[in-house]
């Protein structure tokens, strides 16, 4: 069925995942006159429910959607020795996608001029005076929306050209044990006691939700994802042989693949069309964390719109991207030992400074200090060769997908 109508909004956000929800949330605070969030109906374009973790100091307006938080973090080196840090004033927080979606949808529907439109965006393009989104509604009708600005978070069909292309890929189990086996005060960010792959690195990740409940994940930074059977076998080994869980049930699973690359992600896709989220380069290359950057960028976009500026600031600074490009290449080429690299960072750099560094909030001087606590020779050698390496295209399967 095709029937056409055209509607107008001040701003349109395409895609209600992490970045789209963060931006819609901030825009309801600054109130453009009309704001439409477009999210496809249930089906293949809608990712399964996920958890997003990030660190933050103080209140950020997401408290209602935060389902757990930790002020103590732990990393286990490959030698089994733990590093325990308290990065006050930062806490590590977990937001479930369903809770965040409810919070933002409620805000939108209660605000004047805000709405959530269930539709599939077919095309987004600049037109005179703004931009246009052509959508298909669930009944098959076509709808054209126009706005002064469109923020598009739809995944890219392929990664832009890059020198290094790693993937952070993982599978997690929400486990329940018969007795209390977890300490809900401590989150295990990286546990390198797991067997290491021939290329890249692997670690366990444990977010305890109660003494008898936790999200336990097996993660690799490497070139290729694994089969479900391979993740399950690695998780089973981690739970039984390393965490020592004897009897437990798996209540839910979570799986994903996040690009770790030095590709350039253009933010502008037209005069009035901006890409946000992973598609707009919000994923921090060296860590895969995206949620905190999406939040920071959303606040900056909302402030720019409120002040009548049409700019969208970059999600990450140039220095951070340059350092990440060196680290990714050093990891990919096997010049540095990944588990030692990350464990030593937590051992040698004050945790609050390290987290601030990952948020792009450190000074040049602090960054030199952090650089000196890494294996200087292989990092310098890698830095010296990077400018001579071209970024190349390679069509790849869509990343960021989660399967349950
Ligand atoms: C399982 C999983 C766990 C993760 N955990 C963390 C974490 O703990 N911390 C962290 O910082 N990062 C995490 N990430 C990485 C990153 O934060 C997420 O991938 C995040 O969802 C990226 O946000 P996004 O908005 O760019 O993409 P998405 O969240 O994937 O959003 C894209 C949206 O576009 C919509 N869409 C697609 N096509 C169309 C269309 N044609 N029309 C309209 N809408 C469309 C989709 O429905 C979707 O809602 C995780 C990733 C995965 C996969």
Beta-strand proportion: 25-35%
Query: Unreliable stretches, pLDDT < 50, 5 or more residues?
Result: 396-404
Task: Kindly report the average pLDDT value.
Answer: 92
Shape: globular
Oligomer: single chain
Report on this model:
The chain has 404 residues and is an alpha/beta fold. It has a domain at 4-71 and 94-159 and 262-306: FAD/NAD(P)-binding domain, CATH 3.50.50.60. Helix content is 27%, strand content 33%. It has helices at 18-30, 97-110, 228-242, 291-306, 318-332, 338-348, 351-358, 364-371, 376-385; strands at 4-14, 35-39, 51-57, 66-70, 72-76, 82-85, 90-96, 114-118, 120-127, 130-136, 142-152, 165-177, 186-191, 201-210, 213-222, 248-261, 268-270, 273-275. Strands 1, 2, 8, 9, 10, 11, 17 and 18 form an 8-stranded mixed beta sheet that branches. A 7-stranded mixed beta sheet has the order 6-5-13-14-15-12-16, sandwiched between helices. It has a 3-stranded antiparallel beta sheet with strand order 3-7-4. Helix 1 links the parallel strand 1 (4-14) and strand 2 (35-39). It is globular and about 65 Å long. The relative contact order is 0.16. Residues 396-404 have low confidence and may be disordered. Flavin-adenine dinucleotide (FAD) binds at residues 14-20, 38-40, 45-47, 50-54, 120-121, 153-154, 254, 256, 258, 277-279, 288-291, 400, 402. Flavin-adenine dinucleotide is lined by residues 14-20, 38-40, 45-47, 50-54, 120-121, 153-154, 254, 256, 258, 277-279, 288-291, 400, 402.
């Amino acid at each position: 069925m095709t029937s056409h109508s055209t509607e107008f909004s001040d701003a349109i956000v395409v895609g209600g995942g992490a970045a789209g929800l963060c931006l819609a949330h901030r825009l309801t605070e600054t109130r453009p006159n009309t704001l439409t969030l477009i999210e496809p109906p249930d089906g293949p374009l809608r990712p399964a429910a996920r958890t997003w973790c990030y660190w933050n100091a103080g209140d950020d307006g997401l408290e209602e959607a935060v389902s757990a938080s930790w002020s103590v973090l732990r990393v286990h080196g490959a030698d089994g020795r733990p590093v325990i840090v308290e990065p006050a004033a930062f806490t590590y927080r977990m937001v479930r996608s369903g809770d965040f979606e409810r919070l933002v949808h409620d805000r939108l529907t209660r605000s004047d001029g805000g709405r959530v439109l269930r539709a599939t965006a077919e095309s987004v393009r600049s037109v005179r005076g703004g931009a246009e989104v052509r959508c298909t509604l669930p009944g098959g009708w076509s709808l054209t929306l126009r706005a002064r600005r469109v923020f598009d978070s739809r995944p890219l069909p392929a990664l832009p050209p890059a020198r290094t292309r790693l993937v952070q890929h993982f599978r997690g189990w929400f486990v329940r044990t018969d007795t209390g086996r977890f300490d809900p005060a401590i989150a295990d960010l990286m546990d390198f006691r797991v067997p290491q792959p021939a290329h890249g690195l692997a670690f366990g990740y444990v977010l305890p939700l109660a003494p008898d409940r936790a999200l336990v994940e097996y993660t690799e930074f490497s070139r290729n994802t694994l089969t479900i059977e391979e993740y399950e076998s690695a998780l089973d080994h981690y739970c039984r042989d390393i965490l020592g869980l004897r009897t437990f049930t798996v209540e839910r699973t979570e799986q994903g693949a996040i690009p770790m690359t030095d590709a350039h992600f253009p933010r502008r896709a037209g005069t009035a069309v901006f890409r946000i989220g992973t598609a707009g380069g919000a994923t921090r290359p060296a860590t895969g964390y995206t949620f905190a950057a999406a939040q920071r960028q959303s606040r900056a976009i909302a402030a720019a719109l409120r002040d009548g500026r049409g700019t969208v600031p970059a999600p990450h600074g140039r220095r951070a991207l340059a350092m990440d490009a060196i680290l990714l290449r050093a990891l990919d080429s096997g010049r540095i030992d990944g588990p030692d690299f990350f464990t030593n960072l937590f051992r040698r750099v004050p945790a609050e400074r390290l987290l601030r560094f990952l948020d792009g909030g450190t000074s040049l001087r602090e960054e030199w200090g952090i650089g000196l606590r890494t294996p200087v020779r292989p990092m310098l050698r890698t830095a010296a060769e990077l400018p001579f390496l071209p970024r190349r295209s390679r069509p790849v399967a869509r990343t960021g997908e989660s399967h349950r």
